Predict the 3D structure of the following.
Amino acid sequence: MTEGSKKAVLAALVANFGIAVAKFVGFIITRSAGLLAESVHSLADTSNQALLLLGGKRAERAADREHPFGYGRERYFWSFVVALILFSMGGLFALYEGIAKVRDPHEVESLAVAVGILVFAIALETFSLRTAYREARHHKPDDVSWARWFRNAKSPELPVVLLEDIGAEIGLFLALGGVIAAEVTDEPRWDAVGSISIGVLLIVIAIVLGIEMKGLLIGESASAGDVTSIEKSLTGTPGVMALIHMRTQHLGPDELLVAAKVQFDSSLSIADLATTINEAESRLRAEVPIARVVYLEPDIRRSEVT
């Protein structure tokens, strides 16, 4: 995990823990369904950040006999677990609580306390979101949209924290709107509507995260830019005639497997061929440093075989 990603995760962890405590206290005082839903949401977010840190730590373990390509995908696995927790502890619980309060509404007992805590939570969440946004800006190219960056990101922590923080910020405003509407209209079901809205929002975010993390867990290829750089580094090596076939796969956010069939100059001796292969690998790794595992197989195009 990069320092930027770790900084964003830690900021979100501290902010969400403080928010969760404040919201639980507020729920005890006000009995607001929206505050309870947001309390559980913040508790889930706090555990999520802890899991992201755990995944980053476990991914640093060295390769062994059972896992010869290392543990880089631990970061994808724990990010997928985060999506499941956000779906169940966050979204489903908020839906359940909201529906229960629609059927059996309760008055919000202290509007001032509820609003004060939600405003405090919005301030902390804004700090966390701002940190995640600033760190993500360092990784997102200016000519790439946020949606495309999220879909193509290979490092899971920043996209997860950023999307989680956006959902939390929107959820807080939904809870605030529900509490105020319940007081103004004297209809406590508006508070329940806020809770239901938060639940739907979190479920949508969790599904999006789950889909993205599933793709990374299964194994995604290198980015288009890295593929182009790999091809240029190989075909630009003296003694390489053509790149016949290539496959890439991320073993983790910062580890790439490259396997390729390469046509070399047929006049090379065995010793010269070995030297050329080593030179090609060196050029490849210099161009794409995350290419940690490289297999180059000498071959001949079928059309050229007599």
In short: The domain at 3-218 is CATH 1.20.1510.10 (Alpha-lytic protease prodomain-like). The CA atoms of residues 92 and 199 lie 6 Å apart. The chain has two domains: 3-218, 224-304. The first helix runs from residue 3 to 30.
